[in-house]
Design brief:
By secondary structure, the protein is α/β, with parallel strands linked by helices. It has 13 helices and 14 strands. Its cofactor is pyridoxal 5'-phosphate.
């Protein structure tokens, strides 16, 4: 059967993103038992393929119904106990929100906060780690509110040098599947994400991958985990069972979404993951050069080295605001996102370029966005730059 999704506005926000026909069709798969042989094979292979995306052999995936926010709850409830000190590297809205979640479980949070458009430096991190013993350090790989790309590899290197017992936690919601992540090589303890961004699947799945060290900490903690659905002690036997071909029940998995994830991961892992990272980087560079060189607009990240490959955050020019641009894009069948960071909320907008929008150039989606932006800014009197 050949399936094509209905015509719809082009969704280029920083998630959810456009999904392929194959993935959407898999999401409409017939009902089946979550204990059946066919689903057990699907789920087991999905777990194995997720490891490939994160370049890990030792990490333990935990894939459940939920959103990226559930990943925060899992990390906070499983890895912290009341009174534990946590250092949050804050590069925008989502660093702050992760902090709020950690505090809800009794953690004592210290922020290492960067100015808008920046990420804390190696030296700042090392100094912070020398001042206090932290249970863990959290880093938002791509903060969707600013488009700032952090450096988990650098963070882990500094932590291992200064405070080797401290866990390194990566919020990869807007990076997994589109940005380089090497979980084992970088000695990351947890990487969490959700289905609706770089993995190219409809919303509804929370995906976490946990190191052996972090699992040992959970299994030997002094106090009882203050969650039930989010407890990794409940989920670990389930994930291990499905991977071994022996389904274990705790809570009914979202079967159709896992079938969709399986289909997406099968496509992703059919080629070296480095190719996918490279294609996202190429698409991002091309789009950002258009924004800077042709439109003459400034981006929120203050340097290309800290600009995400999965999205672009763009300041409006003087005298232009969201109502001048975003509704006009929608009139041309393009949906983008407004500002999110409270300090600059009305000064910028955000465009996502992940998954098939970035890597399948035959769809011409980013070219459509560029053409439309070019016409809109010309129409409102913002003269585009000409290149030599």
């Amino acid at each position: 059967m050949t399936f094509h999704q209905v015509e719809h506005p082009l969704l280029v926000i920083p998630g959810p993103i456009e999904v392929s026909d194959d993935v959407l069709f898999a999401n409409a798969s017939p009902s089946q038992s979550h204990m059946s042989k066919s689903f057990t094979e699907t789920f087991g292979n999905t777990i194995r393929m997720f490891r490939q995306v994160l370049v890990t052999e030792r990490g333990q995936p935990i894939i459940t119904a939920g959103s990226g926010t559930l990943g925060w709850d899992m990390i906070a409830s499983n890895l912290t106990e009341p009174g534990d000190d946590v250092l949050v590297l804050n590069s925008g809205y989502f660093g702050q929100s992760f902090s709020d979640c950690l505090e809800a479980y009794g953690a004592k949070v210290t922020h290492l906060k960067a100015p808008i458009g920046q990420f804390p430096s190696r030296e700042q991190l090392a100094e912070a780690l020398k001042l206090k013993k932290y249970k863990m350090v959290t880093v938002t790989h791509v903060d969707t509110s600013t488009g700032v790309l952090s450096n988990p590899q650098m963070v882990s290197e500094v932590v291992r040098q200064v405070s080797p017992d401290t866990l390194v936690i990566v919020d990869g919601v807007c990076s997994v599947g589109s940005e380089e992540i090497r979980m084992d090589e970088w000695s990351l303890d947890v990487v969490m994400c959700a289905s609706q961004k770089g993995l190219g699947v409809p919303p509804g799945l929370c995906l976490v991958c946990v190191s052996e060290r972090a699992i040992h900490l959970v299994e030997t903690r002094k106090t009882k985990i203050s969650a039930y659905f989010a407890s990794w002690l409940n989920w670990l036997p389930v994930m291990r069972g499905y991977e071994q071909g022996k389904p274990v029940y705790f809570a009914t998995p979202p079967i159709q979404l896992i079938c969709a994830l399986y289909t997406s991961l099968k496509a992703i892992t059919s080629r070296p993951i480095e190719e996918r990272w490279s294609k996202h980087k190429e698409a991002s560079l091309d789009f950002k050069q258009f924004v800077t060189n042709e439109l003459g607009l400034k981006q929120v990240p203050n340097d290309p080295s800290v600009a995400a490959n999965s999205m672009t955050a763009i300041y409006f020019p003087d005298g232009v605001s969201a109502p001048d641009v975003i509704p006009k894009l929608f009139e041309h069948g393009i949906i983008v996102a407004g500002g999110l960071h409270k300090e600059i909320k009305d000064k910028y907008f955000r465009i996502g370029h992940m998954g098939i929008t970035a890597i399948d150039t035959t769809r011409h989606e980013l070219e459509k966005v560029k053409d439309t932006l070019r016409n809109i800014f010309t129409a409102i009197g913002h003269a585009a730059k000409t290149t030599d």
